[in-house]
Design brief:
The complex is a heterodimer of chains A (301) and B (311). Helix content of chain A is 75%, strand content 4%. Chain A has 301 residues and is mainly alpha-helical. The longest helix of chain A is centred in the C-terminal third of the chain and has 39 residues, at 213-251. In chain A, 28% of the residues are buried. Residues 266-272 and 284-311 of chain B have low confidence and may be disordered. Classes of the chains: A mainly alpha (301), B alpha/beta (311).
Chain lengths: 301, 311
């Protein structure tokens, strides 16, 4: 019985933190609502002329009883949670529509963004891991190539965009390459670090057992450096996600980032908030997937 | 010609502080016969682990070399396996996979089932069948070193190098593992070169104990022959009449003489060989204790062997 209680106790702590999260979300939504709720229209002090002007402009509309109230359809300030919610439902109910060249459904947009993101990220990860292993294993190459990396690393990925667009000329490829530049450096630095700091005894065991270079790399070096590599990939992942949104905005490529920009151009703040929410949720779910992978590759000594 | 010869090995490091070289040890000269069990004892800093790494090929000697069966060896290989002080088990592999890695490396053309059977043979030898699928982080120190021993033995090396193998294991388990090591070695009779701090362990396991003087500039002070008959066990060995004489001699060396000898640079006279001490009871001779510095005692019937050692 006591053991069961202990186990239940553990379960409860997970439940408790989930409940706290939900409570925080609820509180935030309430605060949002209260901050944006429009007060009842008060006609005292306003002349007939002024009222007619307001109605003409669409700021107020006549109710059924004959009074006035604020026009909820006219955009004024940040929309409340209900407005955004209505907008989200409308968008999510037909996620895969294509009503025009710039008006694809949110489902399509998410797919475009993810495709772009993964192509750039995958390409960068492969090259970064290869380079990282090479410079991690060979300290001569490390010393020779490190100055180049240190100069290229602090350059913002978006700063590469004009140069890339000029040479590559294709905005789609440029967007992928911007993501590539963003996700290259953290993985490479962490891979090199992981390889360098692998405990020497494991390499000694590999030498004594006369493992082939292939075997040594794939059975000892890479699994040994895996936790560091995964940590680097995680950081690169975040950097790539951050880079894909402005890349889409600047290049005019359809995607979730581009949606944000378009909605802003339309002054549809609900749309902007919605797309921000989508970016957040997509990033979150990809990160969850990443966590799973990371946990399977770590080891303890 | 001896099976394994450590030939005039010295090790120097560059010394950034004093702008010169820092000598760990110099002129180490040892001849080891096949199936002999040699232990090196000495204070920290005398370079015993460095010497072991040089024999293993994991470090380079500054001068001199290691000769195994007539050929010089200067890089690691399957003929000299090592048991490490901190176990050096691959953390992301299970016990089975760790040992299988070695079996496969030593026998690349075996079939999968042959490798599997052989691996389990060694897992059973160290009584770890139940833990075969556990990762090293789930094992105790004693269990980890058993895996280390199995890994080292299973490749049937010509020379087995043990680098303070039981230093990180608790005292109770240590005794048990020592007996297990004796059993494993009696079966396979590899040539063994071990480094340890534990005098009792040295006497229990070895044929000869090499006593090194203190570093820097360490060298071999003495070699003590352990002629307590085999098979030895911890329980029976302490009954032997020579046991405590040998033990006290070694401890006395470690406490006093290792320091004294290191500062005395007159090793030139015994440059031609190392001083050898034996405690075997001789009916005709009287005092088996070594007193002076310049003459060696040796057992009559082993004069031949000793003469060879001295050369």
């Amino acid at each position: 019985m006591k053991e069961q209680e202990k186990i239940i106790g553990q379960k409860n702590s997970g439940l408790a933190s989930a409940m706290l999260s939900l409570m925080l979300v609820g509180i935030l939504i309430v605060i949002w609502h209260l901050a944006t709720v429009k007060p009842k229209f008060d006609p005292t002090g306003l002349t007939e002329d002024k009222l007619m002007l307001l109605e003409f402009n669409g700021d107020i509309i006549r109710t059924e009883e004959g009074g006035y109230e604020h026009n909820s359809e006219k955009n004024q300030g940040i929309p409340g949670p209900l407005t955004v919610f209505k907008y989200s439902i409308a968008q999510l109910s037909e996620p895969f529509h294509k009503k025009g060249t710039n008006d694809h459904g949110i489902g399509h947009l998410i797919v475009y963004t993810i495709e772009r993101f993964f192509t750039g990220f995958f390409l960068a990860s492969v090259i970064a891991i290869i380079l990282g292993v090479v410079i991690g294993v060979n300290s001569f190459l490390y010393a020779a190539l490190n100055p180049f990396f240190q100069v290229l690393k602090p350059v913002s990925p978006l700063a590469w965009m004009p140069l890339l667009l000029y040479t590559v000329k294709d905005p789609q490829t440029t967007a992928i390459l911007v993501v590539f530049m963003a996700s290259l450096w953290p993985t490479m630095a962490n891979t090199a670090f992981g390889v360098k700091s692998l405990r020497k005894e494991f390499l000694h065991v590999a030498s004594i057992l006369q493992l082939t270079p292939f075997s040594r790399l794939f059975r000892i070096v890479l699994p040994g450096a895996a936790p560091a590599i995964v940590a680097g990939l995680r950081i690169s992942f975040g950097a790539a996600l951050v880079a894909v949104v402005p890349a889409e905005m600047l290049l005019g490529e359809l995607g979730v980032g581009y949606l944000t920009w378009i909605e802003w151009n339309n002054l549809d703040i609900s749309g902007v908030l919605f797309s921000i929410g989508v970016i957040g949720v997509v990033g979150w779910s990809l990160d969850l997937f990443f966590n799973r992978m990371a946990n399977s590759l770590t080891y303890s000594e | 010609m001896s099976y394994l010869e450590v030939s005039k090995i010295s090790k120097y490091f560059r010394d950034p502080e004093h702008r010169g070289t820092f000598c760990v040890f110099e002129d180490i000269h040892l001849k080891i016969e096949k199936s002999e069990f040699i232990t090196v004892v000495g204070h920290s800093g005398c370079g015993k682990s460095t010497l072991l790494n040089i024999i293993a090929g994991l470090e380079d000697a500054s001068s001199g070399g290691v000769i195994l069966e007539g050929k010089e060896v200067d890089s690691p290989g399957l003929d000299r396996s090592v048991v490490f002080q901190n176990f050096a088990l691959i953390p992301w592999m299970t016990v089975f996979e760790n040992i299988r890695l070695a079996v496969k490396a030593a026998n690349p053309d075996w079939s999968k089932s042959q490798i599997k059977d052989y691996t389990f043979k060694y897992i059973d030898l160290v009584n770890l069948r139940e833990a075969a699928n556990k990762k090293p982080s789930a094992l105790s120190g004693g269990m980890k070193q058993r895996v280390g021993l199995a890994r080292a033995f299973c490749i049937n090396p010509k020379v087995l190098l043990l680098d303070e193998p039981f230093a990180q294991i608790d005292a109770l388990t240590r005794g048990v593992i020592q007996d297990e090591l004796v059993e494993m070695w009696e079966d396979s009779k590899n040539t063994v070169f071990m480094v340890t701090h534990d005098v009792d362990e040295a006497i229990l396991l070895s044929d000869r104990v090499v006593l090194m003087t203190n570093g820097p500039n360490a060298r071999i002070g003495e070699i003590v022959e352990i002629d307590i008959p085999r098979p030895r066990t911890r329980a029976s060995i302490i009954e032997h009449p020579s046991y405590y004489k040998i033990r006290n001699h070694i401890i006395h060396f470690l406490v006093e003489r290792s320091q004294k000898l290191s500062s005395v640079n007159d090793n030139k006279e015994s440059n031609n060989g190392n001083k050898i001490v034996s405690f075997k009871k001789e009916p005709s001779r009287v005092n088996a204790k070594c007193t002076g510095q310049s003459h060696s005692l040796f057992h009559a019937s082993r004069a031949e062997q000793v003469n060879q050692l001295n050369n």
